[in-house]
Design goal:
The protein is of the alpha+beta class and 696 residues long. 41% of the residues lie in helices and 18% in strands.
């Protein structure tokens, strides 16, 4: 019988023995009157009084006639001492039916042991809850990232630093409310279920209202309703609540997240920048005690004032591209591709510009700064600048490449607003499912008259992540969105049998040998560095296959063949064809579709869904090779075997290093249950094994 099942059986047997003794293992009432923290802090004042503690058993050391118990109640840990002589032999025997994880109550008086430890001398105790499952790793904590997020209650019990993060989160939200309310904002609530989702360019979740027999959407933002309240006469309103966007999941995004939005009549975006500096600097100082915050080995200085940059000027300074003079979509697409960046085949001018900015510029904005004056096409709800109608009065607050706040002077011209909505609708019809819908009710509201107004929105999860030094938003969302257990990919710790049954490559025939694959790519790819990259990707894919108990031959061949069309001119000029052309040629030769579909999936521009483990793995593995090679080349001996994991992790965090290594793609390893540190370790060790082949 597996150990876990044995534990369960043992605890259930103890439960039955407690019941046989007429002991209620789940009573309703506790007489606790003191917390563990209070007992420790006010020890001298309480030592002559009888107090009652209650909490979870963290440690239980049962000896012949005495027992030491460490009790944890959420405020801290306190030691109990139970003597057979004090409680009586029969009661003392009851402890044999207790386990770590049980919740108990104990009364007694305080004393210090010979070692000076503050302790409760127990005169009576009672079981409050019998735990039927052992705590993870006997309180050493959950280590598997997927399991930590899926069973957050166990994570909170065993990882006390995680609990502290959520206490900090609560303080941050409380301080936001306090600051807004002292500035005369009132908190309101607007619909979560909406007939038309608006206020942000995002793909919504859909649902069905049975009562009205209509399709509805979970809101992507509360913006349009909040502005209607300004029309109705409120001058300062805010809402803190959940938003829902049916988009990707990574360390910066979760399908549902918490935002704070406020709207301020008779104000503009310039005034909001000043307000933002004052508000956040005060909140950060109160929560952390300093305006200098450490985040991933970087010191972020929130001292005022913060730098201000113009959007188009940032792009031009970094890339040399003047987007405002390149309004032709075809021309812009060619320029971006010439710079070495991919372009979404369905993207219009606005999305191309936004994507270009995000990959070429945003990650380099480390210290707190404002980015202002965005092109009109990027913000359909903001007012144009009076001195340049091609731009809008909008700013974003950026910190370590994270967009923390977006704000702008609101568009209050109903005719202009409808024209912009129509242009958004045209984009939707072309395939941009993040473009906004036409909201006629909102336009009608504007026709009654919206005063000059400024609006402001902040992602609370991102702010909390910064102030708690958390790389992933999942660390600061109590229950992040997870795949159901029966659908999830294999996690590092468990390699579940259910996932193995769904293994898409285990019994697949490749229909191509490795020698044939090498001959195929060498006939098409002449650049030596490109060939080495494919060998490196093969090695990492085989390492991942071994980690997940998958088919190493299939995974290795996918990695080896993934760039076989990279020197074909057509694939170079149209990024959506890179991967597709090579995969189609291999498919025509009878090569397994598991391999060819993975080849397509390594390049997101092909549109191939990453709906299997091998596809997710190759997408993350492809850019990792470049990061590892670049790290090796800056070593004195330029040897990959000299690279240490610690050094690789540091280089990953330095976004100015190996700029071409797509960190977002590398970070997607978390989507298939592999922590970043483990992924980097597998990638490095896999490439070190073929160092001679790579000539590194």
């Amino acid at each position: 019988m597996p150990e876990k099942a044995e534990f369960l059986k043992n605890r259930k047997e103890k439960l039955e023995k407690l019941k046989d003794k007429k002991i209620n293992p789940f009573p309703s009432i506790s007489k606790r009157d003191t917390s563990c923290l209070t007992a420790a802090k006010k020890f001298d004042n309480l030592k002559d009084k009888t107090i009652v503690l209650a909490g979870r058993v963290k440690l239980l050391r049962l000896h012949g006639g005495s027992c030491f118990i460490n009790l944890y109640d959420g405020s801290g840990v306190f030691q109990l001492f139970v003597s057979k002589k004090e409680v009586g032999p029969e009661k003392y025997q009851e402890l044999k039916l207790y386990d770590v994880g049980d919740i108990l109550e104990a009364s007694g008086t305080l004393f210090k042991t010979k070692k000076g430890e503050k302790t409760l001398m127990v005169d009576s105790f009672a079981l409050l809850t019998k735990s039927l499952r052992p705590l993870p790793e006997k309180w050493h904590g959950l280590k598997d990232v997927d399991e930590r997020y899926r069973f957050r209650e166990l994570d909170l019990i065993s990882n006390l630093d995680i609990k502290a993060k959520f206490i900090t989160r609560s303080k941050i939200i409380s301080e936001i409310r306090h600051y807004l309310e002292k500035n005369n904002f009132i908190e309101v609530e607007t619909p979560v279920l909406q007939v038309i989702p608006g206020g942000a360019s995002a793909k919504p979740f859909t649902t069905h209202n049975n009562a009205f027999d209509i399709e509805m959407y979970l809101r992507v933002a509360p913006e349009l309703y909040l502005k209607r309240l300004i029309v109705g006469g409120f001058e300062k309103v805010y809402e803190i609540g959940r938003q829902f966007r049916n988009e990707g999941v990574d360390h910066q995004h979760n399908p549902e997240f918490t935002s704070c939005e406020f709207y301020w009549a008779y104000q503009d975006y310039e005034g909001l920048m000043n307000f933002t500096e004052e508000m956040l600097s005060e909140i950060i100082k109160k929560v952390t005690g300093s305006l200098v915050v450490e985040y991933e080995d970087q010191k972020l200085d929130f001292s005022l004032p913060w730098k201000r940059h113009k959007f188009a000027e940032l792009i031009k300074e970094e890339t040399g591209v003047d987007i405002m003079k390149t309004k032709d979509e075809k021309e812009l697409k060619e320029i971006i591709q010439e710079k070495g960046y991919q372009v979404d085949k369905n993207a219009g001018w606005a999305k191309m510009v936004d994507d270009f900015y995000k990959v070429a510029v945003r990650d380099k904005l480390i210290q707190p700064c404002f980015v202002t004056d965005y092109p009109l096409e990027l913000e359909p709800l903001a007012k144009k600048k009076e001195d340049n109608p091609e731009l809008v009065q909008r700013f974003q607050l950026l910190v370590v490449g994270l967009e923390i706040i977006k704000a702008y002077t609101e568009l209050n011209d109903p005719i202009d607003q409808m024209d912009r909505f129509k242009k958004q609708q045209e984009l939707r019809e072309k395939g941009d499912d993040e473009a906004q819908f036409i909201d006629e009710d909102f336009v009608t509201s504007l026709e009654y008259g919206l005063p000059p107004t400024a609006g402001w929105g902040m992602g609370i999860d991102r702010l909390v992540a910064l102030l708690t030094n958390s790389h992933s938003l999942r660390e600061v969302i109590l229950f992040p969105t997870m795949k159901p257990v029966e659908q999830k990919t294999v996690s590092t710790a468990e390699k579940s049998q259910s996932s193995k049954k769904k293994n898409e490559s285990k019994n697949v025939e490749a229909n191509i040998t490795r020698d044939e694959a090498l001959e195929f790519i060498k006939g098409r790819v002449k650049n030596e560095n490109s060939l080495k990259h494919m060998l490196a990707t093969e090695a990492i894919m085989k390492g991942l296959a071994k980690e997940f108990d998958q088919n190493e031959e299939i995974w290795g061949l996918a990695g080896l063949l993934h760039d076989s069309d990279m020197e074909i001119k057509e694939a170079q000029t149209d990024m959506s064809k890179h991967g597709t052309m090579g995969a189609d040629e291999l498919k025509a030769k009878g090569v397994s579709e598991v391999i060819t579909s993975a080849i397509k999936a390594h390049n997101e521009a092909t549109g191939e869904p990453r709906d299997t483990l091998i596809k997710q793995a190759i997408y993350a593995a492809d850019p990792l090779t470049g990061l590892i090679v670049t790290t090796a080349l800056v070593r004195p001996d330029k040897k990959i075997n000299s690279v240490k994991l610690k050094s690789l992790k540091k280089k990953f965090k330095d976004k100015s290093f190996a700029k071409g290594a797509k960190r977002e793609a590398i970070m997607s390893c978390e989507e298939f249950g592999l922590p970043l540190d483990k992924f980097l370790e597998i990638g490095l060790s896999s490439m070190q094994k073929i160092a001679d082949e790579l000539d590194l």
